[in-house]
Amino acid sequence: MTWLELAAGVYARRYEELDLTVGLVVGDDRCLVVDVRGDVDQGAELAAAVREITPLPWSVVYTHAHFDHAFGTTAFLPCDVWAHEGCVTELAQYGEQARLKWMAKMESENRPEMAAALGRTEIVMPTRLVSDTAEIDLGGRTVVLRFLGRAHTDHDLFVHVPDAGIIFAGDAVENAEAGFSAYSFNEDSSLVEWTEVMGAILALGPKTIVAGHGDPVDTAFIEKHREGLRELIALKTEIAAGDLTTDEAVARSPYPGDVTKAALETP
């Protein structure tokens, strides 16, 4: 749990818990925290870690609404909380359900401290909403928040630091250390649009892309897994046409079986 300085004033911080990676962008006048971890205690740890880097006023941004990225906000308040407008809908409809689900999971795994922390966690709604693009002036540095399309969720927000050539991608890009899972598919994901999002990332010409889980990656990683998505789309098309069974598709897929099956169930 140390800060990795990716460029002057741009940091990533990776955690063993869920292999989560968060970020920090520092300007002359203020800073921006990219994702806030998963509960009130984890958020407090991150807030203290940010203060090791800078005393500047902060804002936070949620890359998406999932608990591990968006539930640790309390320690940062009062501040602006940026997110895509779809994030509000997701948190309002499913945030409390997710909090209870993960509390139960932690209890079932004999992790009472984390369950208790989730029990004390307040879900903080975004206050600054983005539909397409927004710019945040940090003083001497502008950060651009971009919605590039439906990928991991229908409200993924990318945090682009143009002067450093860095994009924080949330879970639209994942880089698991073991074996590897480039994607985390769910009912809100889209194979076709995710492929287009990968292309949009490449079009921005970044040097480094910070994955929501795992180490930062380069554009070769994005290119490779854009092609992987295209292969998954082709497999799904063959299944729909009756030319391939699901088991045959799994055997031909470039990804592990559980990842492939989840992908084949997406829109």
UniProtKB/TrEMBL annotation:
<protein>
    <submittedName>
        <fullName>Fumarylacetoacetase</fullName>
    </submittedName>
</protein>
<dbReference type="InterPro" id="IPR050855">
    <property type="entry name" value="NDM-1-like"/>
</dbReference>
<dbReference type="InterPro" id="IPR036866">
    <property type="entry name" value="RibonucZ/Hydroxyglut_hydro"/>
</dbReference>
<feature type="domain" description="Metallo-beta-lactamase">
    <location>
        <begin position="19"/>
        <end position="213"/>
    </location>
</feature>
<dbReference type="Pfam" id="PF00753">
    <property type="entry name" value="Lactamase_B"/>
</dbReference>
<dbReference type="InterPro" id="IPR001279">
    <property type="entry name" value="Metallo-B-lactamas"/>
</dbReference>
